[in-house]
From TrEMBL, chain A:
<feature type="transmembrane region" description="Helical">
    <location>
        <begin position="264"/>
        <end position="285"/>
    </location>
</feature>
<dbReference type="InterPro" id="IPR052157">
    <property type="entry name" value="BCAA_transport_permease"/>
</dbReference>
<feature type="transmembrane region" description="Helical">
    <location>
        <begin position="12"/>
        <end position="33"/>
    </location>
</feature>
<feature type="transmembrane region" description="Helical">
    <location>
        <begin position="179"/>
        <end position="199"/>
    </location>
</feature>
<keyword id="KW-0029">Amino-acid transport</keyword>
<dbReference type="GO" id="GO:0006865">
    <property type="term" value="P:amino acid transport"/>
</dbReference>
<feature type="transmembrane region" description="Helical">
    <location>
        <begin position="38"/>
        <end position="57"/>
    </location>
</feature>
<feature type="transmembrane region" description="Helical">
    <location>
        <begin position="220"/>
        <end position="244"/>
    </location>
</feature>
<dbReference type="GO" id="GO:0022857">
    <property type="term" value="F:transmembrane transporter activity"/>
</dbReference>
From TrEMBL, chain B:
<keyword id="KW-0547">Nucleotide-binding</keyword>
<keyword id="KW-0813">Transport</keyword>
<dbReference type="InterPro" id="IPR003593">
    <property type="entry name" value="AAA+_ATPase"/>
</dbReference>
<protein>
    <submittedName>
        <fullName>Amino acid/amide ABC transporter ATP-binding protein 1 (HAAT family)</fullName>
    </submittedName>
</protein>
<dbReference type="InterPro" id="IPR027417">
    <property type="entry name" value="P-loop_NTPase"/>
</dbReference>
<keyword id="KW-0067">ATP-binding</keyword>
<dbReference type="Pfam" id="PF00005">
    <property type="entry name" value="ABC_tran"/>
</dbReference>
<dbReference type="InterPro" id="IPR003439">
    <property type="entry name" value="ABC_transporter-like_ATP-bd"/>
</dbReference>
<dbReference type="GO" id="GO:0005524">
    <property type="term" value="F:ATP binding"/>
</dbReference>
Amino acid sequence: MPDQLLYAAEVMINGLMAGVLYALVALGFVLIFKASGIFNYAQGVLALFAALTLVGLQEGQVPFAHLINAAFGTEVHHFGWQLPSIVAILLTVGVMILLAVAIERFILKHLVNQEPIILFMATIGLAYFLEGFGDVMWGADVKTLDVGLPQGGSFWIEEKTAVLGGDGFYGFFIDKLDIVATVVAAILVISLTLFSQYSKQGRALRAVADDHQAALSVGISLRFIWVLVWSIAGFVALVAGIMWGAKSGVQFSLSLIALKALPVLMLGGFTSIPGAIVGGLIIGVGEKLFEFTIGPMIGGATENWFAYVLALLFLVFRPQGLFGEKIIERV
Amino acid sequence: MKDTVEPYVTEDGRTIGGVLMELKHITLKFGGVVAIKDISFDIREGEIRAIIGPNGAGKSSMLNVISGFYTPTEGEVWFEGKKRPQMRPYKVAQQGIARTFQNIALFSGMSTLDNIMTGRITHMSAGLFSQAAWWGKAEREETANREAVEKIIDFLEIQHIRKTPVGRLPYGLQKRVELGRALAAEPRLLLLDEPMAGMNVEEKEDMSRFILDVNDEFGTTIVLIEHDMGVVMDLSDRVVVMDYGKKIGDGPPEEVRANPDVIEAYLGVSHD
């Protein structure tokens, strides 16, 4: 096989893996959008907050340390313990559920029957609040997140694939972390789909997304469903936070990955879980391949804008996305 | 409470049961606007109770009070012999009060089958984990619920649209699916808000037949709001007439029809 083609294949595989990470973030958006018609601007910050909390708990950081020190003149910063990853993850899940309850209690409950745009604004507020809150709680420094996920290139794959090419070809370089992310995303998507299609709560969730009044009339508690949805979104954010955090450290720019989810959603459709996955993969592969093939001709750095241009094209020709529900207005 | 009320014999000679729900001095205000003014009436087990009146008389508000969507400003709602505390609509639904809406409120993205299946949510109890594993209880429950739903689909003669997303159905069929969803809850009390609004004659006849059959076969107590006097007279055992938020008549259809206040409200006879 010519080496050029092999390189392209390697780029494509890496694109797929990157796409999985985009899809993970997009998934959180889709969940909340499906269940409440809200475009949750805070999803990226949720991922950041989850990752910060996870690192903080794991390292035994004292929450609000700066605040406490400033107020009482103390010098606290760490409790001096190191929690096992699994305990820290479970505790973080607990924190995300508490956060969901708080969001319902302090925001959503007061905005029942409001226009979607109002709720959207509320999530913008929530995003900035959470970003600041995370800062005050855990500090603004860049943290390394290590929950024991395998990292670095997989030598096994490199060795096995090296034979495909000639002398100058050293095999595919694939990050183990990306493989883990792919497996995790697959499990997450399958279980979420099963949950929403076949469980009582999943059915209730779809009902609430469709019509609040009707949902109430068949005995569904809106408040419970909202807490449930935001808990799940928080959980997905945690998974995304772990993957991105392990890859590039936990820092406040993590909240910007939410922006990459936007084109993914435009491609896949805002209401489709499989759409989020396929959209993520297309964008991942598309931007890597574009950079590989066209990039050198036009000076590179195409990854920054390629996804958005693709999304724009989709908006023109298929505004509901690949898998989104067709927009029908009955007159 | 039931034993203290003597049985009530309807015009066509049917005996209907004791009091299922009693509304005592219900008043409902929105700010300065009085939607319902000191209305009392009862609903007996197994009857078809109609609420009629001109537009804006407060009929739908009354239904919303019964189903918990509105909390009355004053007055009490007694259900099954007990005073009902202030209650959220989903709790009311869990108590066995199902309803349909004047402007159809269906889950338009779901199929007919799924819509009616949601009606059975109050009959599902298996926990998240047994559902996730699709274990014994969850599986049995799902099967039982599916059977109940299939029966309703048969009953309402909508087999041909089982898998169709309801958003695509014509209006008359949507109304029928909505009735099906309410029936799926096996309600003690079924509230129908203008079940025949906007239908053609044929559809109206179908719907009337279904309502009578529901009442007859399942013994479901029904409260319905309707504009069409003819329909009301044919269907109902007893009628409450409302006008400007007040009750102006209450009794069997024939009696109500002869009531001068009612005639005035409907035909606008002047007092001069």
